[in-house]
Amino acid sequence: MNIVVCVKQTFDTEAKIVLDGSGNIDGSAVKLVINPYDEYAIEEALKLKEKFGGDVTLVSMGGERAPEALKTGFAMGADRGVLVTDPALEDPDEWACAEVLAKAISQIPYDIILTGRVAIDDGSGQVAVRMADALGVPSVSCIVELSVEDGKAVARREIDGGTELVEVCLPAVLTAQKGLNIPRLPSMAGIMKAKNKELKKLSLADVGIDASGFSRKMSVPKLSLPNPRKGGKTVPGEPAEAAKELARLLREEAKAI
Amino acid sequence: MAKGIWIIVEQSKSEIRKVSLELLSTARAIADKTGDPLVAVIPGKGVSGLAGTAAAYGADKVVLIDDDKLADYTTGAYTSALSKLIRKEEPNAVLLGNTAIGKDLAPRLAHRLGVGMASDCVGMEYDEESFLVFKRPIYGGKAFAELSACERPAIATIRPNTFPLAAPDEARKAEIANESANIDVEDLRAIVREVALAASARPELIEADIIVSGGRGMKGPENFHIIEECADAIGAAVGASRAAVDSGWIEQKFQVGQTGKTVSPVLYIACGISGSIQHLAGMGTSKVIVAINKDPDANIFTVCDYGIVGDLFTIVPLLTEEFKKLV
User: Fold this and answer.
1) Which residues contact A182 (CB under 8 A, 6 or more apart)?
2) Half-sphere exposure (CA, 13 Å, Cβ side) for B272?
3) Is any Cβ of chain B less than 8 angstroms from the Cβ of A162?
4) In the predicted model, what is the mean pLDDT of chain A?
5) How far is A91 from chain B (nearest CA, A)?
């Protein structure tokens, strides 16, 4: 089985966000990690490989530091990687990311494509679903359970207020939600092997995209930081007194109940 | 020329979901400024009964797409039906709730139409130059981005509880149109085998007006009944921090935070939650935050509106009793 996992390098969730002089996010001092949801996707891919045989190929886009994220995936057990890197991809929007990834993936054989349900940096959760449309394959979002049989995937996906079981023809794109599995930690042997795994770097031209025809579909975002919330009232008193006063404040002052 | 602002209406248990009504309410005011007709588009099976409610909340026109193949939501069938209608009518904006369906449908619809999209917006304003300016959290709410669409339609999903509900006007009438679904066969490669909804009388976490949440301070799964009883006293949803979920005390679907649900209730009551940067990312847009924690130095006290320093096992049950007196 040919399994593709799309991964993205993101800021660590502990990262504090700072804007530089021109209003852009300053990421120079930030620790970068593999998007946590993509780790669930890699783990699921490795489980499929263990069951059916085959290969796990990681596909990513990014700049100089992106190979670090791919190496984490290699150390977990992925077989090879493809990184699309190009000066024209400085600040792509979701439409562009989906087109680029779809073009890169269409050059390799695939039966199933897994990725995280959302990247924790931009949080838009669009690229995987868009990519499925660009590839002309179905997708199932936010899966917490997966079984594969006879050219079909049966996935349990999280919906509001419950779950649903969706059967989909392969190839398909599936996006991983927390709960799908517990990602393995890279073993020492895995870390050693990661160094020798093939990482193919491709430009936009290599995937058949003319960079000059690439225009944004959304305006360049204007960034701001939230107004910091201030700590408010501490409600004093013995527990019974404090509870009574808090209930009163929520009803009369905050009008929240 | 005004071509319309469309709301893709979602339903649950034969009623229009609250977030769709919030979108109709807020888009009504925008449509009044732009002169666009406000259109409620309702895909599904047996949806004609919902038209009146959509009209009462401000729709000028209700478009019903009634088809057996739309009875269960599947990405392909809904994308096929809606993209064709959008190509035909060319609306200026298409807005959806940032729900399980909206999050899945809007990006595929946007890609099929070759346009951009703004996800999980917590603000939307009309501006003559850029039409709709969307505000959305990035880095889990640690920053915000404002952006607009370069082409039409402008597509966005809006976070539930972002906009207030207007008072419905039951006398309001809308033009009603029926459209056929016209689903392409290649868009029918997924089927829903089973839908399992939790048998809970509590509101859906992302749409709830009030959330009572428990964290590491709960000390174990056997204590979560304290949170549930408090929630039930005021019709609230139950939430949890990552610490409680990762300890196996409560299911993942209750998790609020950067790697869980993002919520924006009127009132968020955090019990035994320290207030990590990742948790605040998921609930920082709540209107009123209450913290109950025995550690006076807990970070949650730097962001809460009201705080009680003390033992949650004593205070939360007392608070529950006080809430019962109020409602």
Assistant:
1) A43
2) 23
3) yes
4) 95
5) 14
- Output the DSSP codes for A75-140: HHT--EEEEE--GGGSS--HHHHHHHHHHHHTTS--SEEEEES--TTT----HHHHHHHHHT--EE
Taking only the tens place, the pLDDT of each residue in A85-122 is 999 998 899 999 999 999 999 999 999 999 999 999 99
Per-residue pLDDT averaged across B63-84, rounded? 97
Look at residues B251, B200, B240 and name the one whose alpha carbon lies nearest to residue B218.
B240
Say which residue the tokens 């924790």 belong to.
A120
Is pLDDT of A229 > 90? no
**Sole residue written with tokens 């948790």:** B279
CB atoms A221 and B266 under 8 Å: no
* Domain at A2-213: CATH code: 3.40.50.620
pLDDT confidence of residue A105: 98
- Are the beta carbons of A132 and B150 separated by less than 8 Å? no
**B209 and B183 fall within a common domain:** no
CA distance readout (Å), B75 to B66, B126, B191, B299:
16, 29, 10, 41
B21 and B163 housed in the same domain? yes
Q: Is residue B199 part of a domain?
A: no
Domain that holds residue B275: 205-326
Average pLDDT over residues B215-222: 98
A–B CB contacts, 8 A cutoff, strictly below: 273
ipTM of the complex: 0.95
B142-178: pLDDT as tens digits: 899 999 999 999 999 999 999 999 999 999 999 999 9
Residue B106: the pLDDT is 98
Residue A227 exposure: Cα atoms within 13 Å on the Cβ side: 4
User: What residue segments make up the domains of chain A, in order of their start?
Assistant: 2-213, 230-257
pTM: 0.94
B1: pLDDT strictly greater than 70: no
Domain count, chain B: 2
Helix A94-105 with B100-113: angle, nearest 10 deg: 80
Q: Where among B130, B156, B187 does a domain terminate?
A: B187
Question: For position B199, what pLDDT does the model report?
Answer: 82
Contact A165 B196 (CB under 8 A): yes
B chain contacts of residue A226, beta-carbon cutoff 8 Å: 141-144, 284
Flag whether pLDDT at A232 surpasses 90: no
The CATH number covering residue B134 comes to: 3.40.50.620
Residue B193 lies in a domain: no
